[in-house]
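Bumping my old thread because nobody answered last time. Still need a sequence for this structure:
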């Protein structure tokens, strides 16, 4: 489910797609003015999924603690609160700053948001996870929340990227022996986004 998709269209605006249909091209102020109407559409999508499925996973966007955006946020803790969902914060240790990402974020949350935070997952750890045992203890002690796991870094995973920035990186998938190779290209237009649509 992605009830609202924002596709940058150059400058300060974006194309807003709601429930799979183009809604409008909006600047940030106009987008936030539409929030009450958009929240209703998001919740209608959520309730439809909730009626059909036992488990729904909500993915946030950006940082979980964007203080300047909290009042108008439709995702992250705002959506978790509306859905009555527990929150898992996934921190990327490969980029560095995992303690700032976990402990720092925790301390920026309101008390209501902290009650929703079930714990943490540490992602993209290189090396032996046992070597990060002290790190797990530090996070758990300072947040009083569990670290549910330390996931390894997996090289060449090649998951599709969400943004056009990923066009800088070439991805190769080896074909099976004896198969013909299919070559294709994507024209890099100046305002392309979500290139998986091509």
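Sorry it took so long. Here it is:
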């Amino acid at each position: 489910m992605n009830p609202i998709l924002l596709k940058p269209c150059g400058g300060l605006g974006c194309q807003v797609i709601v429930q799979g249909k183009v809604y409008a091209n909006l600047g940030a102020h106009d987008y936030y003015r539409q929030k009450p109407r958009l929240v209703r559409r998001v919740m209608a999508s959520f309730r439809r999924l909730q009626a059909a499925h036992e488990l729904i996973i909500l993915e946030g966007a950006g940082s979980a603690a964007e203080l300047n955006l909290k009042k108008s946020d439709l995702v992250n803790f705002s959506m978790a609160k509306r859905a009555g969902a527990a929150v898992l914060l996934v921190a990327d240790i490969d980029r560095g700053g995992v303690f700032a990402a976990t402990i720092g974020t925790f301390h920026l949350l309101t008390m209501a948001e902290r009650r929703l935070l079930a714990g943490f997952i540490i992602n993209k750890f290189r090396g032996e996870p046992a070597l990060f045992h002290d790190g797990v203890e530090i996070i758990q002690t300072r947040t009083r929340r569990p670290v549910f796991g330390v996931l390894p870094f997996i090289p060449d995973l090649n998951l599709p990227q969400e943004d056009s920035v990923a066009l800088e990186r070439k991805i190769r998938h080896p074909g099976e022996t004896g198969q013909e190779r299919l070559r294709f290209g994507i024209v890099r237009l100046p305002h392309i986004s979500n290139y998986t649509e091509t």
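DSSP finds six helices and six strands in the chain. Let me know if any region looks off to you.
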